[in-house]
Design goal:
The chain is built from three helices and nine strands, in the order E-E-E-H-E-H-H-E-E-E-E-E. By secondary structure, it is α/β, with parallel strands linked by helices. It has a six-stranded mixed beta sheet, with helices on one face. The protein has a three-stranded antiparallel beta sheet with strand order 7-8-9, with no helix packed on it. A hairpin with a 4-residue loop joins strand 2 and strand 3. Helix 1 packs parallel to helix 3. The longest helix has 11 residues. It is globular and about 35 Å long. It starts with a strand and ends with a strand. The mean pLDDT is 95.
Length: 126
């Protein structure tokens, strides 16, 4: 079962946590303010497995270093087009690719309007 938590960050943005409740793991999306995101993960007691970046701007991917300091084994996922711009990237994804994150699966969609390498992650059966 999947659960989603929205975390307000910075003054006008959000990070998201997607929990795999069966495996007690969590995926962080755009954790630009690591302290808030890490506090939520700690409260949940889940294990962070992946950091998903929608694009390379600091207010989305700028917290990767702080997240990896706390969870060095987490994989950082982002667009192959942004690979050189996303700190810590270990998995490069592309349009229409499907990826598994534990029991959870996402379809990757290129949405190159905001940045050339912008991607969205569509979880579920879509």
């Amino acid at each position: 079962m999947m659960k989603i938590e929205q975390i307000p960050i910075l003054s006008d943005n959000y990070a998201y946590l997607i929990y795999d409740e069966e495996n007690h793991t969590v995926i962080a999306i755009d954790p630009a303010e690591p302290a808030r995101v890490l506090a939520a993960i700690e409260t949940s007691g889940a294990t962070l497995t992946h950091i998903l970046c929608t694009h390379h701007h600091w207010d989305h991917a700028g917290g990767n270093r702080g997240m990896l300091a706390a969870w060095p084994d987490a994989d950082v996922v982002g667009s192959g087009d942004d690979a050189g711009k996303i700190e810590g990237i270990t998995i490069r994804v592309s349009h229409e690719e499907r990826r598994s994150f534990g029991n959870l699966s996402a379809r990757i969609l290129a949405v190159p309007c905001h940045t050339r390498g912008h991607v969205a992650y569509l979880f579920g059966d879509a």
